[in-house]
């Protein structure tokens, strides 16, 4: 008698593939990236293009060395890594520095561990930390904004916008205590990395991802609360020494981390309780590094530290297996 092989039960499917998810995240991040090019000019565009090309070429070479089809390089994962790294860099970063960071992120941060889905750390943040350690001067040279003006003959682009001449400026994170104008932070009217330009565009992109079901709100909400609550308490106790919660929330890469970096599906916990703990830990570490550390920004370090704790969080806060506990309890007399 023939025995039929068991088959999987029918399941509903969201219709989203890995490729769809990657390109939807890229789409959500695109308005903030384009706005960064608008206010910083062609140098910002050069950083983004350099990152994308070097990341894709690195992906193709790694796939070929592993005997895999190079067409897998167009799944969007390398493009997203490149865009996230570019958004965390100053617009004045030399193109070769940005390219080197992307090569490191793809080769060391991703393929050394086995490729997509196997990397324990966020590749973009790994590349960002490496560049900060190896090229501290290039990564702390913040270009001042240069928004094109409107003249009688159309748009007027300055030499700085065209990349002919550059003017450096201080990022708001250099002195958080001096931040008083929240509108400038919200609309990106200050120097900083491409991902610090507009908290509004980044937040709108994040809300789009939540609406599409790509990410869940646990990590973004927990991270922003984990950053804001200690900042509010410290500012209330010692306002002369600690910046306000609003300054921490809208400056630096807090919004980018909350919606696009910490929510990485590979390097973050899977359970709701685990995601809440992970996000709160990221937010609190960002505040600690900003307030007491040697670096003004702590997003990359905080995310990598919590990435290392993701397996432990998943182990202790994983959901209960269905049927592991009885639905009925016997009474003492039974």
Automatic annotation (TrEMBL):
Q: Which UniProt keywords apply?
A: Cell inner membrane, Cell membrane, Electron transport, Flavoprotein, FMN, Membrane, Phosphoprotein, Translocase, Transmembrane, Transmembrane helix, Transport
Cofactor(s) annotated in UniProt = FMN
**Cellular component terms per the entry's GO annotation:** plasma membrane
Function comment = Part of a membrane-bound complex that couples electron transfer with translocation of ions across the membrane.
Q: Which residues form a coiled coil?
A: none
Q: What is this protein called?
A: Ion-translocating oxidoreductase complex subunit D
- Membrane-traversing stretches: 44-63, 70-89, 95-113, 125-145, 191-211, 218-237, 243-262, 274-293
Q: What class of enzyme is it?
A: translocase
Give membrane topology per the record. Answer: Multi-pass membrane protein
Q: Which GO terms describe its biological process?
A: electron transport chain; transmembrane transport
- Compartment(s) where it occurs, according to its Swiss-Prot or TrEMBL record: Cell inner membrane
Q: How does it assemble?
A: The complex is composed of six subunits: RnfA, RnfB, RnfC, RnfD, RnfE and RnfG.
What Enzyme Commission number(s) appear in the record?
7.-.-.-
Q: Which Pfam families match?
A: NQR2_RnfD_RnfE (PF03116)
The keyword Nuclease is annotated on this UniProt entry: no
Family per UniProt?
A: Belongs to the NqrB/RnfD family.
According to the UniProt record, list the residues that bear FMN phosphoryl threonine. 171
Could you confirm whether the keyword Electron transport appears in this record?
yes
Q: Could you tell me which NCBIfam families the record lists for this protein? A: rnfD (TIGR01946)
């Amino acid at each position: 008698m023939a025995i039929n092989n068991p088959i999987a039960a029918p399941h509903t499917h969201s219709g989203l593939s890995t490729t769809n998810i990657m390109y939807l995240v890229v789409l959500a991040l695109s308005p903030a990236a384009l706005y960064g090019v608008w206010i910083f000019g062609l140098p910002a565009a050069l950083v983004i293009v350099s990152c994308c090309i070097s990341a894709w070429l690195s992906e193709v070479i790694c796939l070929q060395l592993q005997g895999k089809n190079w067409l897998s390089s167009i799944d969007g994962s390398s493009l997203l890594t490149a865009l996230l790294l570019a958004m965390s860099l100053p617009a004045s970063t030399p193109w070769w520095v940005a390219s080197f960071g992307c090569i490191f992120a793809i080769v060391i941060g991703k393929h050394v561990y086995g490729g997509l889905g196997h990397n324990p750390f966020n590749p973009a943040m790994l590349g960002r930390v490496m560049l900060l350690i190896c090229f501290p001067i290039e990564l702390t040279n913040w270009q001042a904004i240069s928004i094109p003006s409107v003249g009688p003959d159309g748009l007027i682009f300055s030499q700085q916008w065209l990349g002919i001449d550059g003017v450096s400026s201080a990022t708001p994170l250099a002195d958080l205590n001096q931040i008083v104008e929240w509108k400038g932070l919200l609309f990106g009217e200050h120097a900083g990395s491409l991902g610090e330009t507009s908290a509004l565009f980044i937040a709108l992109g994040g809300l789009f991802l939540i609406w599409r079901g790509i990410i869940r709100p646990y990590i973004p909400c927990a991270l922003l609360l984990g950053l804001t609550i200690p900042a509010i308490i410290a500012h209330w106790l010692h306002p002369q020494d600690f910046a306000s919660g609003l300054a921490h929330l809208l400056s630096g890469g807090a919004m980018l981390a909350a919606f696009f970096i910490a929510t990485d599906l590979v390097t973050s916990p899977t359970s709701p309780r685990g995601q809440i703990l992970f996000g709160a830990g990221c937010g609190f570490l960002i505040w600690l590094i900003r307030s007491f550390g040697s670096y003004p920004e702590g997003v990359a370090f905080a995310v990598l530290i919590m990435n290392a704790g993701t397996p432990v969080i998943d182990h202790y806060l994983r959901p209960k297996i269905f049927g592991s506990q009885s639905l009925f309890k016997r009474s003492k007399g039974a």
